Amino acid sequence: MGSVSGMLRALASGSKHLAIKRFTLRYPEQKLKFVGDGYQFDPKDGVGIVGYRGRHILYHDKCTGCQLCSIACEGIAEAISMVKVDKQYKQNKKGIMPQIDYGKCVFCGLCVDACPFYALFMTDDYELAAYTKEHLIYTPDQLAVKPKYQGTYEIKIDELGAYHDE
Ligand code: SF4
Ligand code: SF4
């Protein structure tokens, strides 16, 4: 039964692209604007919520320093290291939070799935190019910053994938 529904989903996903107009953007003059949040996971219900898998966002007031995100990444890319933060949070006695190296991250989202405290999600931020490897390492403070830019070409994402309306 599962394989039949999987085949139907694959067919629906593939056939949708027959009706979608192809488009090419002249980046960086023309930029994408993703509609909705990035990829999230609801640990209570055990479901992933569809969204773009761009740069992460870390909510300091929720992170407990449990390291589960780092452990989840160990077998994938070893992109997360736990580092000390200056500010003290009552839910985080060790005072440690994840730091992510985007030179290693493969944007799989497993660290988001592993976080039981709704502290780590992904955002629509896809502009991560840097001149040095060091600049690809995002500290907990950098991960707490919400993406600022907004493109003009709207891209929507649903369970069948990304699409453009126009
Ligand atoms: S999204 Fe990146 S940081 Fe998170 S588990 Fe995957 S590779 Fe590691
Ligand atoms: S982001 Fe989530 S999984 Fe990672 S240390 Fe903080 S609370 Fe734990």
Describe this structure in words.
- It is an enzyme of class 1 (oxidoreductase).
- Residues 54-85, 96-125 form the 4Fe-4S ferredoxin-type domain.
- Its EC number is 1.6.5.11.
- It comes from Candidatus Nitrosocaldus cavascurensis.
- This is NADH-quinone oxidoreductase subunit I.
- The protein is an alpha+beta fold.
- 23% of the residues are buried.
- Strands 1-9-10 form a 3-stranded mixed β-sheet, with no helix packed on it. A 3-stranded antiparallel β-sheet has the order 5-6-8.
- β2 and β3 form a beta hairpin.
- The termini are far apart.
- The mean pLDDT is 89.
- It has one domain: Alpha-Beta Plaits (2-Layer Sandwich).
- It is 20% helix and 23% strand.
- One iron/sulfur cluster (SF4) binds next to α2 and β6.
Count of DSSP strands: 10
Give the percentage of residues in beta strands: 15-25%
Biggest β-sheet description: 3 strands, mixed
Number of self-contained structural domains: 1
Bound molecules: iron/sulfur cluster
Spatial strand sequence of the major β-sheet: 1-9-10
The CATH architecture classification is: 2-Layer Sandwich
> What is the CATH level 1 assignment?
Alpha Beta
Shape: globular
Low-confidence stretches: none
Fraction of residues in H or I helices? 10-25%
Report how far apart the termini are.
Answer: 36 Å
- Please tally the helical runs, counting DSSP H or I stretches of 4 or more residues: 4
Rg to the nearest angstrom? 18 Å
Secondary structure category: alpha+beta
Give the SSE order as H and E letters. Answer: HEEEEHEEHEEHEE
CATH topology: Alpha-Beta Plaits
